Amino acid sequence: MTETVDVVLIGGGIMSATLGTLISELQPDWKITVFERLDDVAMESSNAWNNAGTGHAALCELNYMPEAPDGTVDPAKAIAINEQFQQSRQLWASLVERGVLDAPSTFINATPHMTFVRGEKDVSYLRKRYEALKDEPLFAGIEYSEDSRVIHQWAPLLMKKRRKSDEPFAATRVPAGTDVDFGALTHQLFDNLRERGARVFTNREVKKLKRQADGSWLVTFRDLIGHTPGRINARFVFVGAGGWALKLLQRSGIPEISGYGVFPIGGQWLKTSNPALVAQHRAKVYSQASVGAPPMSVPHLDTRVVNGEASLLFGPFATFSPKFLKNGSMLDIVTQVRPGNILPMLKVAVDNPSLIRYLVGELLKSHKDKVESLREFVPTARDEDWELLDAGQRAQVMKKDPEKVGVLQFGTEVVAAEDGSIAGLLGASPGASTAVSIMLGLLQTCFPDRIEEWAPRLRELIPSYGRTLNPDEAAARTAIEETARALAISR
């Protein structure tokens, strides 16, 4: 007889770990089973070296606040993303205070967030962005400067041998930024789930998802070590398998996935662990994307703290592989094609020639060319100090659009069956940083009959649940200060 559980989570990343944690807190009596096809969790996009680890709060990422054709800038999206990151901070703080998570420094560290731009056009834009944000409570403390001496104090590597006579430049800085090791965080969340009775299986690849007459799902999987098949029945299934989420949702047969496709984009970083360089840069510094580049390829020079050791990453540089995951199949990009998504995907290809040109240009870059790009940030960079590191695969969403037939989307999107019995996550940025907000939305979509009952517990875990912080200056300040104290990070 096939075993029946309440929840099956497919994929061992931060999304499944977050959803599993929330469900275990809300319904401790529910049986949870997790399947991960690799030999450990957090090996794909949640791995520390496969993502930027920014702690996306829109403090420095310019693509969340583009300049409109009339020259205005709207802070609404940046504020919304900051709100979402505050929910992540609140949940982590709650779990730290209860001893569920280890010492905060094992997964989150204070790291100022900066934006650095060059040229009159971008300096003008950054000044307008600063003016639009400086009075928003969630962006309190943001600083702006065009003074090379001030920027040198913030990030010495940016300013060495840089002359303002060559071109104007400007920077913003938010001291309250963070660096997050999502790999460590994911491991700790899964460790807690195991302690609470969840079963976490690695080396298990889910092959089929079949809806049963009672509305549950028969999950067929294979043990990749023993090569033996297995089956389990689940009342609810979440597919948090990165780019493979599309393939599994297609196999489920739910009509809601019709019209969706994904375009895989890989990446590489330049990395240095040279102590002399690391000591001169304690920040995450973002700039403007190149013309035609996707938002996820915005260049940035980041301090990363992984396993207690600091290093610097610069990039990402785009690469291309037809795989949806680093450990995917070379046939992924072909096997996704269905009658319902072929037209949207073709339309995306026709409408985005600049993206194709950008990818080709990136693929032709040598190591020397990539270090030359780094020198726009760090004029004194030397080839021998930096090594190339492969980043993770990002599966950008392509989907139907009533007006354009098909569009390329750079955010994240939850696709759920009408009855809420199965859901999956597609897309990338801002991704991991807003996992808590995304999973709260999923709970509301998939469990509408329980969400009111769960609300009091959710407010204990996430005090701002159900409301926004930014309109209330006192509430925003209190929330940020309390989580900063609990997570041992500076305000």
Overview of this protein structure:
This protein is α+β, with helices and mostly antiparallel strands and 491 residues long. The protein has helices spanning 14-26, 76-97, 120-133, 148-154, 156-159, 182-195, 244-252, 275-278, 332-335, 342-351, 353-363, 367-374, 435-446, 451-461, 473-486, and strands at residues 4-10, 32-35, 108-110, 113-118, 143-145, 169-174, 178-180, 199-201, 204-211, 217-223, 229-239, 261-272, 284-286, 300-306, 309-319, 387-390, 394-401, 405-409, 412-416, 422-427. Strands 4, 5, 6, 12, 13, 14, 15, 16, 17 and 18 form a ten-stranded mixed β-sheet that branches. Strands 1, 2, 8, 9, 10, 11, 19 and 20 form an eight-stranded mixed β-sheet that branches. It has a two-stranded antiparallel sheet with strand order 3-7. Helix 1 packs parallel to helix 6. The protein starts with a strand and ends in a 5-residue tail after the last helix. The model has no long low-confidence stretch (mean pLDDT 93). Belongs to the MQO family. It catalyses: (S)-malate + a quinone = a quinol + oxaloacetate. Its cofactor is FAD.
